Amino acid sequence: MRFSRVLLPALFVLAAASACASTKTNDNELRTVQPKAKKNPYVITREELMDPAITSRDALTALRHLRPNFFTYRGPTDPIDYKAGHTQVSQDYGPLQALSALAAVDTRSLVEVRYLNANDAQNRFGINANGGPVIVVMTTMSAK
Fold first, then answer.
1. Number of CB atoms found within 10 A of residue 74's CB
2. What is the pLDDT of residues 5-40, one digit of tens each?
3. Could you tell me whether strands 88-91 and 43-44 are parallel, antiparallel, or unpaired per DSSP bridges?
4. Residue 42 vs residues 23, 69, 96, 108: alpha-carbon distances, Å
5. Over the Cα atoms of the chain, what is R_g?
6. Residue 107, exposed/middle/buried by CB under 10 A (0-12, 13-18, 19+)?
7. What is the pLDDT of residues 98-143, one digit of tens each?
8. Taking the model in full, what pTM does it have?
């Protein structure tokens, strides 16, 4: 009886000490581990575009691979104007073009790609946005 009164608390102390020792980490290990950068769902950076699996593709294929949500729009569309509500493309905030224009753009020439929702596209491009989102591909470091 006396043996179990001494042995049981001693086992708890040993178990707690070993648990603390196993979770203790070295300060150097904590400094070398860097948190994974969170991707912005509306911006594709140069680093993402320079992935070797991406650079060999045209811009349209690369963007569909990196951010497929850029190409889905569930907003209102106009049955008379087939372009209304569809995603369009602007190169360096220039005139709006059809998505097919991205197929002619080399991925290695891109600096950044931004997605503008329908409201932001309307504010930036006016009625030319036709109530749909716009993908802006930046090939230069021009003002935003």
1. 6
2. 666 666 666 666 666 554 445 555 555 555 566 788
3. unpaired
4. 38, 9, 18, 19
5. 27
6. buried
7. 999 999 999 999 999 999 999 999 999 998 888 889 999 999 765 4
8. 0.66
